[in-house]
Amino acid sequence: EVELIISDLNMPGHDGFAFLKDLADAAYDGALIIASGENDSILSSARQIARRMKLNIVGTINKPINVTSFETLVGEARVQDANAKPNSKSSSTAVSHDLTPALVYQLQVNTFSGRISGAEALLRAVDQNGRMIGPSALLAQADTHQAAKTLTEQLLELFSKEVAQLRAQGYTWPYSFNLDARPLENPILPALLRDKVNKHGLSPDDLVLELTESHMPDDPSILLSAIARLRMAGFHMAMDDFSTGAASFDILRDGAFSEGILYMNLTRSASEVEASRAFIRNLADIASSLNLRLVAEGIETASERALMESLGVRHMQGYLFAKPVTS
Asked: pTM for the complete prediction?
C-alpha cells in the first residue's frame, strides 16, 4: 500500500496534471507532494486542482529541492497519516446492508476565550465485525429522497438520545448535527424533527443543524423556506462546507442562518493563497457584524490556528484540539 507519492508536473508523455487525474480515478488516499521547477502560480494551481480532486496533497516544493523544506513536508505527511481515522480505508469495501449508523463527537473551541464552544456529531458506520469505519457505504444507501428522509430520521433519533445523555452528564455546550437538505422539501419535516428532540427532553435551541452545500435542493426558495421553518421551530442553522462560490454566499445571505462552517479546503489553502485569506477575513468581518458564528474546520497545526485567529475566526475544530470520540 502506497502511503506517499512525490510527483513532478513535467513528465515525458504524461504530464503531472494527467497523473493527478489518474490518482483521483484510482481513489488514491495516501499523501501527495508535488515537486516542480514551474513558477509559483502553476504550483499553486496544481495544489488547488489536487484538492478539488479530493487528493490529500500535503504541499508543493520548488526545484531544485531544498532538503530542509522537503523533510518538513514529509514530516507533515507522517503527522497526517498518524491522525488518519482508524479503518477509514476499509469503508469502500464494506457491505452496506450490514452496516449500523454510529456517531462520534469532535469538540469546537473558541480560541479567543480558550473555552469549548460546541461539539459536532460526525457520522460513522459499524460493520458486522463491530469495527467502526467511514460513512461512505452507509450514505450510498440514501440515494433517493425517501431513503435520505429515513436515514435522517434514524440519525436524528440516535443523535437526540446521545446528546440528552451527554447533557445529563454536564456537557451542556451546543451540539451540531449534519442534515441532508433533500428531505427538507417536505414541509412537515421541521415539526417532525422538533418532536423527535422534544421526545428526549431536549430543546431545539440546544442543537445546531448543519446543511451541507453539496446536498442542497435545486430550488433555492424551497431551501430558504425550510431553513426559516427550522429557525421558527427553535433550531440553530449552519451552512456547512461554505466556500467561495456566489451561490454559497447568496444562500448564506438570504437564509436564516446562525452559523457558517468554512470549507476545509478553503481554510487549508489560506496559508498559501492570498485570495483565500482575503475571503476568510472579509467573511469573518461580515459574520461578526451579523452576529453569526463562523467555524474553521480541519485545523491540525498551531500555525493554522494562528492564521485563522489573525483573520478574525474565533471558533475552530480539528485534530489540533481533539480527535472525534464516541459518546
From this structure: 0.71
